[in-house]
Amino acid sequence: MFGAVALPSLRDDLALLPGPPAHDGAPTWTLHDPLSNRFFRLSWPAFEVLSRWHLGSPTDVAKSVCAETPLDLDDQDVASVVEFLARGGLLKAETPKDVDRLLAIHDAAKTSWLTWALHHYLFFRIPLVRPDAWLTRTLPFVAWMGSRPFRLATLAALLLGLLMVGRQWDRFAATFVDHFSLSGLAAFGIALGFAKMAHELGHAFTAKSYGCRVPTMGVAFLVLWPMLYTDVNDAWKLTDRRQRLMVGAAGILAEMTIAAWAVLAWGLLPEGPAKGMTFTLAVTTLISSLAINLSPFMRFDGYFLAMDALDQPNLHPRSFALARWHLREVLFGLNEPVPEHLPSTTRAWMIVFAWAVWIYRLALFLGIAVLVYHFFIKVVGIVLFVVEIGWFVIKPFWAEMAEWRKRLPAIRASRRSRWPLGGLLFVLLILLVPWSGRVSAPAILKAESHMALYAPSSSILAEIRVAEGQKVEVGTVLARLDNPDLALRLQQVERRIGVLKYELSATGFEDSFRNRTQSITQELAGAVAERAAIQAETDRLTLVAPMAATITDISPNLQPGQWINGREPILGLRVGTVLEAYVAESDLPRIAKNNSARFIPEGGGTAMDATIAAIDRVAVKALTEPSLAAPYGGTIPARFADKTLVPDGALYRVRLATDTPTAFAAPMRGQIHMDGQRQSLMGSALRSAAAVLIREWGF
Questions:
Q1: Which CATH code is given to the segment(s) 576-697?
Q2: Counting beta carbons within 10 angstroms of the beta carbon of residue 20, is it exposed (0 to 12), middle (13 to 18) or buried (19 or more)?
Q3: Which of 40, 273, 447, 448 is a plausible cystine mate for 576, CB 3.0–4.6 Å?
Q4: Per residue in 130-165, is it b (16+ CB within 10 Å) or e — as a string?
């Protein structure tokens, strides 16, 4: 500490301002540091100490506070205030010791060039304008937007617009779907830029109307994503909580005002470009305000509104500190002092809030990391992906593990720590021990070859002599067809043949026949040939099995006595079965030929044993079985390219043999579980990461 000899001098440029009442009704004050434009909330004891700073020593200050107020302070309390002022850089550097202290603070804040680059890649600001004087001049021209009549008119416009949207909801929803195009996304981008400009001007004009200074406006970059910002830190000077809430909510209210009038305009305007523009503006501002700005989990407007509404400054860091303390107490029972004393209800919801923020940020940053990976050049995308995961996900875990290492002796001495440590050991065993050697992959059971039988010509179905799934041999009669036209033609030809034979036999006693002997002979030969052709065509009406096969695909729409044409299949013949699986590249080294496997049909069919017969050594370029692809209900992510289904990842086809007799009418989709080399979950994750690095870097 600084001792009880003399108090250090305060900086002359500091400003002490009245603050809003605390949640328990106690008065507070705000200390403004104009050099860094930071604001510090002071409690009643801290204010009383600063009010008597001129007394010179901690002992005199403590005695004066105890004598003149109901507070009971000692030298240690005054020293704590001195420590707070020193950490904030609010004291003068008058002695070599003070200079050394400031240098130590400066050195502690220094980082390596790599850390500086990472921090500025993740977030940095570029101030563009100093709008304070312009805001002062233009405020009278826009003040009417904050008047009560305009707010009531906006509310009425919103209600009327929502009523119109409800009556035309189908058209509104169809317009929303139609905007998912290149031009629609461009319109959304322009509308979003306009809405964000109105958002920031809403903050600026509202703060200015309450007498606050707005020093800068510019662009902030969060993971290289541009966002407008307005510096309204001067709002901390406001003692009225409602005014601070209005400054924080002004941006959202500005966007909601635009959305209200745009919705009304959409309902009133005729079809055309103007109606489309109002739709884009309404949807963009509604999504931006409700889905992004109102979230208290990130440092957007919703967070600052929550702090002011709940009167809980620095809500995130204070909640995080409480949640970390609570986690250590639950796991290890260290009995450490609570970071700050709060009512039990307040402490409980702040801990729950901290966990909600952590879960939300984990999901958000993982999503950002994936987007960065996909939308940047592959090598750069991998680097930025690693940065995102390392900074936002791994770094907080590593920092907490470092705190646990500091408390390791106390953790070992605590009986409660046995269960968490045992659970941690169990998780490590699950991750590191190769428990299972099973390799799973999507698979399909199908015919080795398939033949469909058709009617040779238009005919009547007399009967089908086989059943679905029946095994037949070569020459087995499958179905019989009738064709009355062929029967009639055959009768006519038989009659002609009979007449011609009679005429040919009568040439010995009939001159007319004798003169036509050659012609009759030729006609008879033609009729006999025609009869043979008709008989052959009639024989084709009896369908026989050309090979040993299994009957499948008997059409349920065909009934005896029904006319059928030559384009409609009657039944199918399946020869043999083949089982094909598509294995991911990371699992390929774990399986080998002749390994056992088990096929589980989709929908709960009978499982069957199989054996790996062959493994392709080249990844498939296109899926030959569309039913396995995600667009058709399968599990393999795939996309269309040049009218073919291309899998998103590297997949290798594996052929399996099975001796289990199975009757199926159509290809059967399912999962194959193959015996393979045992591998831990951690090993699998590392292998997958290495495969991605090798593939993307082109090693």
A1: 2.40.30
A2: buried
A3: 448
A4: ebbeebeeeeeeeeeebeeeeeeebeebbeebeebb
The whole-number pLDDT of residue 578 equals: 81
**Between the CA of residue 579 and those of 53, 122, 378, what are the distances in Å?**
87, 50, 36
Q: For residue 37, how many C-alpha atoms fall within 13 Å in the half-sphere facing its CB? A: 10
What six digits make up the tokens of 254? 């500005």
Burial 669-699 (b: 16+ CB within 10 A, else e): bbbbbbbbeebbeeeeeebeeeebeeeeeee
Amino acid letter at 66? C
- Tokens 């006319």 sit at which residue? 563
- Between CA 12 and CA 95 the distance in angstroms is 17
Please, where are the H alpha helices in 377-476?
Answer: 378-389, 395-406, 408-413, 418-432
Residues in the chain: 699
In this predicted model, what pLDDT tens digit does every residue of 162-196 receive, in sequence order? 898 888 777 777 666 555 556 666 766 777 778 88
* Model confidence band, residue 4 (pLDDT cutoffs 50, 70, 90): very low
Burial of 263 (0-12, 13-18, 19+ CB in 10 A): buried
Residue with tokens 């021209």: 141
Tell me how crowded residue 519 is: count the other CB atoms within 10 A of its CB.
12
What are the pLDDT digits (tens) for 205-260? Answer: 999 999 888 999 998 876 667 788 898 888 888 878 788 889 888 888 888 898 88
Residue 643 corresponds to which tokens in the numbers above? Answer: 């009218």
* Helix, strand, or coil (residue 347): helix
8 A C-beta contact, residue 228 and residue 196? yes
**Cα–Cα dist 78/406, whole Å:** 29
C-alpha span between 610 and 673 (Å, rounded) = 10
The H or E element containing residue 647 is: strand 644-647
Distance, CA of 578 to CA of 564 (rounded, Å):
32
CA angle at 182 for the pair 181 and 184, rounded to the nearest 5°: 60
Q: Tens digits of per-residue pLDDT, 359-418?
A: 888 887 777 767 666 666 666 666 666 776 777 778 888 888 888 888 888 888 877 777
Are β-strands 638-641 and 542-544 bridged in parallel, bridged antiparallel, or unpaired? unpaired
C-alpha closest to that of 628 among 582, 661, 665, 663 = 582
Confirm if 258 and 264 have CB atoms less than 8 A apart: no
Shortest CA distance to 571 belongs to which of 430, 455, 684?
Answer: 455
pLDDT attached to residue 398: 86
How many CA atoms does the CB half-sphere of 482 hold within 13 Å? 10
Helix (H, G, I), strand (E, B) or coil at 650: coil
Q: Which two tokens stand for residue 355?
A: 């966990």
- Cα 98 to Cα 151: distance, rounded to the nearest angstrom: 54
In the chain, the percentage of residues whose pLDDT exceeds 90 is 8
The answer, as to whether pTM is greater than 0.85, is: no
Q: Which residue has the tokens 């007498």?
A: 211
CA distances from 657 to 221, 401, 443 (A): 57, 51, 13
* Structure tokens given for 401: 């593990």
Tokens of 682: 């951690």
State both tokens at 200.
């920031």
The burial class, CB within 10 Å (0-12 / 13-18 / 19+), for 539 is exposed
